[in-house]
Amino acid sequence: MSHPLHRYLLRHADDNLILSQRLSEYISYAPELEEDLAVANIALDHLGVAMHLLEHAASLDAEGKTGDDLAFLRSEREFVNLLLVEQPNGDFAHIVTRQFFFDAYQAVLWPALAESRAEILAGIAAKAAKEAAYHLRHSTSWMIRLGDGTAESHARTQTAVDALWRYVDEMFESDELDAEMVAAGIGVNPTDLREAWEQQVSVTFAEATLARSGDDYQRRGGRDGFHTEHLGHLLGEMQWMQRSYPGQQW
Amino acid sequence: MSYEVPHMEGDDEIEFGSLPEGGWPRWEAFVRQNGGLSHVHSESVHAPDAETALLNARDTYLRRVEGVSLWVVPADKVTVWESDSPDPAPTDIAPRPTALWEVFVRHRRGLTHVHAGSMAATGPGDAIQKARQVYVTRDEGVSVWVAPASTVYAADPADAAALFEPFADKDYRYPTFYKIPDEVGYM
User: Fold this and answer.
1) pLDDT higher than 90, residue B169
2) At B70, is the secondary structure helix, strand, or coil?
3) DSSP secondary structure string, B10-37?
4) Predicted local confidence at residue B94, as pLDDT
5) Amino acid B184: pLDDT
6) Eight-state DSSP code of residue B154
7) For chain A, how many helices (H) and strands (E)?
8) Contacts of residue B6 in chain A, CB cutoff 8 Å?
9) A110: which residues sit within 8 A by CB, 6+ positions away?
10) In whole angstroms, what is the distance from residue B150 CA to residue B153 CA?
11) Confidence bin at B93 (pLDDT 50/70/90)
């Protein structure tokens, strides 16, 4: 079994890497050119965080792997991202809702991890916290605009909320690795982040005239490498170049 | 109860929402750079409202400059005067100023509009006239924009870390980050 910090870094790296890939797929489809640039920017922010975390994780790995190896040569079962971030794009309301759920989580995660005793992680987290604050502002304003917009935009956003709600609990589940990282002063307990997240959602939903899903069904498994059927397809596209032309560079 | 995920048919079927005819309204964006004294016009963005305009302008125009402050103004609230166009008849004569106006001056063709200051005026015509008296020394190629200060939506300085700092360490936002193979020659 690899270094616990290595596995912990991979979780947060994979969340950002996979969401970045999903957002990249959407570029050129946004409602206006400006929003395309915003999506591209946010995707690059997530990619930057993923890159730093993966390179740090790779440096802890005894096998001499690189950050790129971890991104492009791991199989689906080795990815430990949340199920939320791998969900397909759907319509713009889906993209905004997925982003809002995740931004509200990272906006409390990164400031907490910025206090980590693991200095490199703390440094990455401090930078990511600023980006997450911006991402949350962007997605929150869109949740309100769409939810409190036209009948159609409201219906689409509520549909997205209902569809993605089942991936919420997973963000706040704590397992042995989390407990170990908390005990070492390195990590945070995801469960502790929930209250702030709920507060953000309540305030935003009230203004957006959106309702929480009435369906309590929850999916889980991403942290253990058990994914929805969508991740494999995403990796097929993301990893194709390195798989087909090993070592290929720009 | 069904757990089927709706609206997830696949990447080929992304649906488009409807836009207002002609698209979103236009907003003029002004950036003050690190070390700069004034807000400088940096093109415009389309957005449904001020908040989105600010965020879109941030994503569009701050990638390649070190911005420290950002304003957006609805383009339809900007009154334009060009030195080579006829003077507009003043239609907004009132006994005393009714609002504060922001003034942006382009001193020569080819330059950009730079924030010159603000002044109280009775309306756009009065604001243009006063701006010409105060900020314009010679008329050739000059262009003046005025907009009510109340229509300027500005980034809160408290949000500077989230809005402006994340770009700082992203070298790849500059074209020089990318190596062009020798065979490509000049692009």
Assistant:
1) no
2) strand
3) -GGGPPPPP--TT-SPEEEEEEEETT-S
4) 67
5) 82
6) E
7) 10, 0
8) 159, 162-163
9) A125, A126, A128, A129, A132
10) 8
11) low
Read off the pLDDT band of A153 (50, 70, 90): very high
CB pairs under 8 A between A and B: 96
Whether residue A157 contacts residue A97, with contact meaning beta carbons closer than 8 Å, is answered with yes
Amino acid symbol at B158: A
Residue B56 has pLDDT above 60, yes or no: yes
What integer pLDDT is reported at residue B182 of this predicted model? 83
Question: pTM score, two decimals?
Answer: 0.86
A225 phi-psi bin (left φ>0, alpha ψ -120 to 50, beta other)? left
Check CB contact under 8 Å for B24 and A133.
no
A179 touches chain B (CB under 8 A): no
pLDDT at B185 over 90: no
* Residues belonging to chain B: 187
Do A133 and B165 lie within an 8 Å CB cutoff? no
Q: How close B23 comes to chain A (CA, Å)?
A: 8
The answer to whether residues A185 and A117 touch, using CB atoms and an 8 Å cutoff, is yes
Q: Report the pLDDT value the prediction gives residue B75, as an integer from 0 to 100.
A: 94
| B residues 105-164 closer than 8 Å to A (CB) | 159, 161-163
CA distance B28 to B75: 6
How large is the ipTM?
Answer: 0.78
Structure tokens at A36: 């395309």
Say how far apart CA B69 and CA B74 lie, in whole Å: 17
pLDDT score of A179: 97
- Whether B165 contacts chain A with CB within 8 A: yes
Q: Which two tokens stand for residue A83?
A: 């199920």
